[in-house]
Amino acid sequence: MNIRTEFFLFILALGCASLACRFCGFWIMRFVDITPRVEAALKATPVAVMVGLVVPAALRGGAVEWAGIVVSGIAMKLTNNDLLAAVIGVAVVAVGRSLQLAG
Amino acid sequence: MRRGALAARPLGVGVLVYGMAFGLLAREAQISLSEALLMSGLVFSGSAQLVAVSAMGGGQVPMGAAALAIVGTILLLNARYVLYGAALRPWLGGLPGWKAYPTLAVLGDGNWMLSMKAQSEGEEDAGFVFGSGFAMFIPWLVGTWLGSEARTLVQNPAVLALDFLLVAFSVAMCVGMFRGRGDLKIVVAAAVASVVADQFLISGSAILCAGIAGAVVAWFSFLDKDRPGPVPEMDTPR
Questions:
Q1: B32: distance to nearest CA of chain A, Å?
Q2: Burial (Cβ within 10 Å: 0-12, 13-18, ≥19) of residue B99
Q3: How far is A31 from chain B (nearest CA, A)?
Q4: What is the pTM of this model?
């Protein structure tokens, strides 16, 4: 066990920052009345977050990543199984990247 | 709890490899195995840990202002968890604190999405959220350990494309959760917000800005939607 004291204090600070983010949204909502309108806003967040995760990745990615995104979407339409569709998308990107490396 | 853990298994593979990448980088920054494990256990946030490690080039621990700057970056990077926690309030709000807060402590992007989707499909057991989060926490620690110990295990992780897993998973879930025209404005608002945030703010803020944009649009367009009934009732079974 070799843990430097200053490193321990450093990660303790990071851990507190990380936990504060995890806890405070949930805690604040304690004081907010969950009206149907608030619930509708909260229910909209997953799809919005997913879009926020995919769009920058698409902008940064190349043809391989675009293909992976399109294939995942189509696979989801066909199979209606999100994990299977994700694995198929990852496989497309993995094959594409190996081909790029080889070529 | 079991259902959540089982549902998160494929994501656990991605987390394992991500943890290995962190372990490798931590070792290069002269962080010992026990230090790396402690960090993964306490912080449990890939982006935050990578920022901290990249600030430790010569093995120096940042002190004072440098440390504060990193804490500030982490607050920004992880601000999306504020949103995730808020969205879980209607579901986990009825739990005692000793159950709700540990659930939030092991929350991650992937298991939050899984949980929100499970909830929209009728899952009621709040243990689902903890189970799926815990199923990511363990591979994160194991990955950290493997990466820190065996630096040649994965020579080029990019070829496995597991960094793409969360993106592909989001695409699939987004297609699966899309409920027609009412959701279109949410998607458009989120896309615009994420592009703006990605271009002009730090990269981790795109998710947060997209989430807020989606929530705001849903809030303002609520009246346009069909109300659930004359008396809006939260726990109406669907």
A1: 7
A2: middle
A3: 11
A4: 0.80
